[in-house]
Fold this sequence. Notes:
The chain has helices at 3-24, 37-49, 51-68, 75-93, 99-123, 134-160. The chain has 169 residues and is an all-alpha fold. The protein has one domain (3-160): Orthogonal Bundle (Arp2/3 complex 21 kDa subunit ARPC3), CATH 1.10.1760. The two termini are 25 Å apart.
Amino acid sequence: MNLDSRAVRWALVFTVVVVAQVAVASRLEVAGVHPDLLLLLAVTAGLTGGPARGAVVGFAAGVVADLYLHTRFGVGALASTLTGYAAGVAGDTVVRPSTTIWALSTAALSAAGTLIYATLGHLLGSQTLADPNLLAIVGIVSVVNAALCVPAMAVCRWAGDDHSAVQIR
Length: 169
């Protein structure tokens, strides 16, 4: 598979995820919290493709998220880049992967990504860490992302053409 077809696949994946985030996930609420499919994309790209892919996909996902969020531009990009990179490092260290390990990893990394975003926003003047719903946001985003990690990882493998990637059992 050449680079051009991978770029087309990733463009297709980003288009579908952004449309799903804006048209579907942003309308779904659990305790006033929306799922974060772009964070899920960054995490699963890192888990399946390593730190470099996680960082690149995380950066792109964060920039897209920053375009429709009403916060300081760049906070989402930085948080998603760091989270995607960390997911890649975590994915490279898993010796015996299973669906349970991937789901728990996705939940933990999604929680970390959400907290990184809140911390960076707070450092830049937002009151994100003081939000009384922060624990609910972290919990709901983590659970939803863990539930969706298996199909998201399959999509990331397809987009990255990772035939050598570890298979989920």
